[in-house]
Amino acid sequence: MQVEQLDAAVGSCGSNGSIEVIRVVKEVSKSAKRAISEAKKRPSTRLPAWLKSPELVGATNHWEANRVDLGDGSAETLSKITKRLSKTEIGLITHPDFDSNSAGKDVFAAPLGLAPANNELGLAAIKRAGVDLPAHLGRLCEAKLLTPEQESMLFQRMNFLRHQALKVRAQLNPQKPTLKSIELLDRLILMADWHRDRIVEANMRLVFSIVKKFVNSNNHFDDLLSDGIVALMRAVEKFDFGRGFRFSTYATQVVRRNAYRQVVQVQQERVKIVGGVDDLGLDVSDECRQSAISEKRWHELRARLAVMLGDLDRREKFIIRARFSLGSHRRVHTLQALANRLGVSKERVRQLERRAMEKLRAMAGDFSFAELES
Known about the structure:
Elements: H1 2-11, H2 17-41, H3 57-66, H4 75-87, H5 103-107, H6 119-129, H7 148-171, H8 179-202, H9 204-211, H10 221-238, H11 247-273, H12 286-289, H13 295-310, H14 314-323, H15 335-342, H16 346-364
């Protein structure tokens, strides 16, 4: 409309023609400014050029293999996906350089140069662990150690990708999401996860070397290892790469502290379940017969424990007996072994064990162990 007005004004350039041209030009200018302003407010779905960097081939392949399922692509489906992605936790350690215009180009400029996995490294890690482990655990330790430069680059790239993901998510409209914006957000999150996984893999041998020192009859290697890996992943999320320290120094403290807490917790639970008695099998040894508690009292204690166990449900009773080597169980079973036996996840077994322990503690509070010493 403004162009037609401008043509008409130019065609009628009489005494008032120049004034009319100026007026129309001003209107066109105002309209153009409004359009530019509105365009700036709308989220850009154009892929940044740095996403095509050869350094992101591995991360891109990871995204393509695990990308979000967009279903039928309807507005309702996209809205649901957007709401789910908006609740996904995106933790990062930010850096001032991440907001510069050339940040993407700079972050992925230098070659990372990760070495391929080495099966011999995994087998050597299993041998050094000094415990009977399945061979497949060796695959966790096949990644080579990172150089200081590689480590810094991986942390920088992981956090930069998450920084970009937060910016894209902040512009998403859950009511009217676009397919391209959802794909870009999903892509950035998964590519950041790929970099995180490279850091975790390269530090798996560190976890092996730490947790093996805490292994005993009550704390099995696979339980300590699984918890140690979770602790390692938390350490990756919290590590401030900009301070110039090596990650292994920080990770060692985190994993060691976690293993120590786990050992102490298991010990406390074993003590509480029988009121401070170490021999949870309740076999009356000669040493016990000579203690301040008589054999008769030991039988009474065992009977009371049997009654308490009888109040648990079938799965809880089985887990407690297996975990504390009670009854027919002659050895302590691991959480993973019980998970395989019950057909549930390892975390579910842990939850059932915790629930059973809470029930036993509540029942133990109904009578005093002091009377057994009389």
